[in-house]
Structures are given as C-alpha cells and as structure tokens.
Amino acid sequence: MKNNIIIVGLGKTGFCVLDYFINQDVNIQVFDSKTDYDSDKIAKLSSNKNVIFNLGKNPTGDEEADMVVMSPGISLDLEFVKKFISRNIEVTGEIELSYRYGKGRFVGITGTNGKTTTTTLVGDIFKAYKSDTKVVGNIGYPALEQAVVSDADTFLITELSSFQLESIKTFRPYISAILNITEDHLNRHKTMVEYMKAKFRIFENQSSDEFLVLNYDDELLRLSQSEIKPKIIYFSRKEILKEGIFVENEQIVACIANAKEYIMDVKDILLLGQHNLENVLAAVSIAVLAGIDKSIIKQEVMNFRGVEHRLELVRTYNDVNYINDSKATNPDSSIKALEAMNTPVILIAGGMDKQSDYSSFIDSCIPKVKHLILLGETKDVIEKTAISKGLVNITKVEDMKQAVDVAFLKAKEGDTVLLSPACASWDMYESFEHRGKDFKNCVLSL
Description:
Strand order of the largest sheet: 7-8-6-9-10-11-12-13-14
Number of strands: 20
C-alpha cells in the first residue's frame, strides 16, 4: 500500500476513494477547487488524523505523494498533473483502484452514446442469471465501493467514460464493449484521435481468451483482429454476419463458433429508435458470450423499458407527448432521438459548450422540428447554425421553465415536446439528471 495518497476532486468518486483509504495506514491529502461541501461532513472526516482537506485549491504538483487519485472530471493535461508524472509519481483513477484492490469479474461498456441504456440492460440480464451482480461506474455508482466487497464470482457490469479510461493501468474486463464512436468531449481530448485512443484503452489489457464486442455498423470500429489480443465479436442491425449477433428477417440471431441460434423477434423490443436496437444487440452479445441462456436474455429484453432521462415519456397533456432526453449530451445522441420521433417536434436544446459541430444536428432537425427552443451557453452558436441552414422558427430562453412554457404555447394536438439538448448540462445544472428532473417538474406543473 502507498504511504502518501493525494485525492483530487470530491464528487462521488473522490468520497468513495477517501472512504476506502481513510482507515488504512496512509496519509491522505484531499484537494478540490470548490468549497461548497457539507461542512459537518468535512469536519467529521477531518477528525481523522491522517486526513488533510485543501478545499478551494488544486495541488501544485510539488506535494509529497506516492499516488495521486484523480476524479474523472478533472483533466490529466493540467500542469500540476504533468508535474506529478514528471516526478514519477503514479497518477491514477478510481476504476483502476477498483480492479487493483477489489474482486469480481468486470464487464466493461463504453462508447459515445447508449452506455447507460446498454449497461442497465446488461445488468438486468446478468442479475436474472446470477443475483450477485452489481452495476457500477459512470452510471453513478463508484466501482471501488462495490469491488472491495465482492468475491471472485461477482459480476461487475461497468459503464466507462473516456475520462475514466484515461487513467487505467492494469484494469482488465473479461468482456469489453465499444458501442459507437462519434464526436464528443473535444474540449477535453482536443482531437478525435485522442478521444478514440481513450475509448480503445478498454481492451488494451485483455488476453486472447477474452472478448471485445464491437458495432460492425460503425466503420470506426471495424478493427483488425491481427492487431488486437481479445477475440472480436461484432454486432450489426444492418448486415448478416458470418460470426456475431445480428438481425435477420426481423429476428435477433446469434452465430458464435458456427452455431446459429435465434434469440428473439425485434418487434418484442419496447425501446424506441434504431439506436436502441443497437444497444439491445450489444447487450445480447455480452450476455451470449457470458453463457447466459437465451430464455433469460429474451425475457429481460422484453421487460426492459429504458432508463430515466433517455427518451423518457414524462406525460401526455392535451394530446401532446412530453419526452425527457436529458441524457443526450452531444449532437449525435440528439440526432438519434430525433430519428426515433414520428410526430412533429418542438425541440428544447442547448447547454454547455463542448466545442461540438452542430451542422449534422440541425440537418436532422429540419424535417422534424417545427420550433426550436434554445437555452444555455450554446444557444447563440446553435441558432447561428440553424439560421444558416434555413431553420428560423427559433426562440431563445433563459431557463427551463421558460422553455417548457414556450413549448406548451407552440405545441398542437399530436405534437411531441422533446428535451434533447445535444450538449452537456454543467453550464446550468449539476448533471444531466438534475436538468432532466427540472424539465419533468416544469412539465408536471403545466
């Protein structure tokens, strides 16, 4: 065990790491640039002689340390991080610690879009197969917290962001999956190449007897088996594959090691949209590779109604559907939401600026969106793109209540009011969940 631990960032991850180390024979320094934490909680934790809190500031990089544990929301490009690395001090993250100090069999799921839906569905299937299954990671439950109380047979179904994957060293899922790759987080990763490198780290430690599940329909994910150790298994909703999980005659079929097996009919999936068919195919692929019986897979997929904040029907009022898609934090995710709509849409969008290109997003709006309501940092950028493409029915607002009020006035019988921001939430909200709940409260107050 390292003697001097520095924890940077006090979100769920930071508190989880602190909780793990606090009763061990180590010295801990905690840094966070914010100061608005529960003072009673901080005071109680400060009573531990081995813990020092440094709120309102980051480390300098000159501190004595054997290990620096970074919260995933903090960039590894910061100068103090580079200084620690130049001093040969290990800089890592909570996901790496969960593998290093915990137990269990990790299933790792990443991708630009669909991670939470797929991870939740995989979790449901595995729980029906084996009760000792835990769903952790970027989905909101720190992996370390569960891994250290697991045993060798526990399944840890783990949603992984590019931020979390950046800091791994030995983390190794026995099944990994990359759902898709589209432009996102360029304010952090700078280029698509660097973003993809972070995503691809999910399989870098896997061996030849383990599996990597990839979306064949995403050309960026047609990787060469000769360059990758784990066995690649593709899924596809467009192509009939020689090996993999695919759609044939409106049925989901698994063909592994020359054994072809019908899983279920596509019509029995409750989720809206072709993107959700891809999510189901990924989940089925993981379950098949884990040896789960097809009857369990079929039953859990048929019962699955999706996750909160992802194409979630909030209410139908005056024959208008109000749908919460706050989880759409990038343009491609909102494009998929619009593709799933079959009625005229009043769209609420905008949020934190991640330096995304909104051209394709506006292209997808033109045939479906009768009125565009914009809020947040990006409202002017999105408006400019929309006007340049001829979409001029636009209202800019200051908050969610105004957005919902305008949508209510614009919507006619048979329309859909859709919150699908195409942007992160952090300019106005603590999280996309916070944003989605605000939308739902405004809608329910109509």
